[in-house]
Specification:
Layout (H helix, E strand, L loop, with lengths): L1 E3 L2 E3 L9 E10 L10 E11 L37 E2 L8 H25 L11 H8 L8 E9 L6 H17 L6 E3 L2 H7 L2 E2 L1
């Protein structure tokens, strides 16, 4: 693991490589008498395309001496409080016309491909040789090269995902990871509930 302030990265995640971060909530629904008091956390992963060296050297990590102890002391770290003001939802994002045209062309290709599959499935229904939709797409794309990705697990944020403080921590952790990997930009993936809080703007 590599330490950078409060960001921790697995050694499998390399610097200077385009990275996707994905965050999602995970609820540990422990059995309690009232149903309350269960723990809520946010888990994250880092995804990179696998490539073969040379790998840039990582900065030297501090030495950790071994201790002959059977228990581990966990230090609970309070998250920085996010002071929310009156907010409005995210505004519509402008879309480049070329991106719209590219998406329409891709949709047309996929639509034609699905039409071919539907028509092919109509023939010899009593002795069907055309595979199902998934199998059909696998067979028609079996010549395309598939690159393997590297997935690294990030430290859990021990706080409920519904809190703005937690969302603020996710954004800060993502930015720290971006800086440690020496990247200009980084992709952060969230579910809709987290995203809505992350892009809220003050009035």
């Amino acid at each position: 693991m590599g330490f950078n302030q409060r960001a921790v990265l697995p050694l499998s995640i390399k610097p200077h490589v385009f990275t996707n971060l994905a965050w999602d909530n995970i609820d540990r629904l422990e059995e309690t008498l009232t149903g309350k008091g269960t723990s809520h956390r946010v888990n994250g992963i880092a995804v990179q395309t696998k490539f073969y060296g040379p790998y840039p050297p990582r900065p030297e990590l501090p030495r950790i001496d071994k201790l002959k102890q059977r228990s581990v002391n966990i230090e609970h770290e309070e998250l920085e409080v996010y002071l929310a003001c009156a907010r409005v939802g995210p505004q519509p994002l402008p879309t480049n016309e070329s991106h719209i045209l590219e998406a329409q062309e891709s949709a047309q290709v996929v639509g034609n491909k699905n039409l071919v599959w539907v028509l092919a499935r109509q023939t010899k229904s009593d002795c069907q040789t055309i595979p199902s939709w998934t199998g059909f797409n696998i067979k028609t794309r079996d010549q395309e090269s598939i690159s393997e990705d590297v997935v690294g697990y990030l430290p859990t944020i021990n706080a409920p995902a519904t809190a703005l403080t937690t969302v603020y921590e996710i954004i800060k952790q993502s930015d720290l990871i971006r800086k440690e990997l020496s990247l200009d930009t980084i992709v952060v993936v969230m579910d809709q509930a987290l995203y809505a809080k992350a892009v809220e703007k003050e009035k």
